[in-house]
Amino acid sequence: MAFSIDRNRLTQFGSLEFLARQIVEGFITGLHKSPFHGFSVEFAEHRQYNTGEPIRHIDWKLYGRTEKLFVKRFEEETNLRCQLVIDASSSMCFPVRQKIDFEHPNKLFFSVYAAASLMELMHRQRDAVGLDLFDSEIVFHEPAKSSTVHNKLIYSKLEGLIHDYDKSNRKTTSTPQCLHQIAEMTHRRSLVVIFTDMLDSLADYSAMFEALEHLKYNKHEVILFHVFDGQLEQDLDFENRPYRFVDLETGDVLKLNPVEVQEAYRKKMAERKEALLRHCYQYQIDYVEADINKDYNQILTSYLIKRSKLM
Asked: Do residues 17 and 158 touch, judged by C-beta distance below 8 A?
């Protein structure tokens, strides 16, 4: 799919909404059908069939088990409801740079523009979109709606996330706790799209798995964008010299030569990734690997094309 725009030039206009529209134009050009779809009806319950009624809603499988006629009843649903969930903790500001743009992004920058692009795509489908921002707690919650005024509010909140790292305002993360709350606050049977670096609960993913299972139990479709810097966070690819590593969330300092621990570190990160992928597959959670060193547009486009082929 041929698509190219000067994204750095577009950012000079200062409009996240405008840029998202340009990006989505490129997606739509190459897709034959929408990668997302709404729910037209949702099964509610069975009731006994009354003589003379149309037979198209009879549950014949249930008849085969009970030899009694029952009709399926449905609840009308709106179009797709999508809840965008973004980790706004301090670790998402990595790498800390003097200049943040598409050529030199940090994790939060990538997440904001990816979320804005998905929001624009769903807006064109007249779907409802909401937003949750969290760090150690949920700092902003807006349920899914489809009005223009509502969308302007979300764009404004997203634009407010693009800022320089402020070490005087360190924000820790409690992803599992926040996801449990979001599972309960979000309208039943929604598409929940999560952007996070998965760096809390480093010792054990079990709390995160329980939170993701909670979302699935509440009948949400879940897409997990695992946002990371592959070169620095996954491979620990630094020069062979001593470094001073500072935890962006706590301020803790660790001095070491990363080459000395690189092999063990890479093995541990590979094990964590394998466990995450296995769990996502088991619970039918859509996992998206989002390395900020790779082309932003390519990651989103590849994912949307993948979804369109699954429909």
From this structure: no
